[in-house]
């Protein structure tokens, strides 16, 4: 499938050619370039989707409604009892089935609330993913996003649910499972490409969503993704900062505002292709996060990924809440080589980032209630 998650892969059209028998969608891993975690605090972010990692969901009509488990990710198959227990201890009782179930629930309830008619045909849903676990690359939301797109097309209601609303519905499905997160990941995965997001409180309260502006992906300099294959020390990134913010902690509030303001500078920096300034902003973003959350919460492994890049002069910051780092080498190929060697010596994986283009099709664009550049 081509890297356009909004245009599904369709096969086996019915006799009238009006409805596909099989629908498949991909949603891609997300990198927060600037501004995270301010998206959860009425802030701003700039993010991009990457082709390197993705989740796919396949919908096929069936006589019964079936949510199919994945043999690896849902722990329904193991080589031995000891392997099963070891994976449960390391990864918990998680998997994609619960995400597919929550997506179906939220999608159906929203359509009922909005008076959107859904036909009574049944289907099976299955999924696959190669997004590394616990890397802050939005693996869970990718599954939900891809499933949501399948449901939009199966029920032919893509034109009835505005593209700005979809990220909130995807987040609602995750919240139903106790997943704590902000809108940034879901917005990026719905829209694709390079995206500027403003989550200011006035817009969020009035519109129920932020203001989202797509930028030209050619503005992005060469980036690299650094991640750990087995991130055992991921930290507890979202706590207790949120409670301190809610309690009116002046340091947290001012620091989060500064993180959000980096994005205003970052947008101008990208448009002007001032990549030396971009490197400074990326580093400042991480430094502010570190001051707010503290080293114990961020986790030693996560910090080391950032430091490995900085030791060779590269800019670096978390892609999300920890587990992976986005790095930029302003000095060019020789610095990339030095970074690659340093990552290998430290036991980290490193890959050049491949940016996904915009995922919006003509129907999606027509549903938008606000201008997207």
UniProtKB/TrEMBL annotation:
Q: Which domain of life is it from?
A: Eukaryota
Q: What is this protein called?
A: Uncharacterized protein
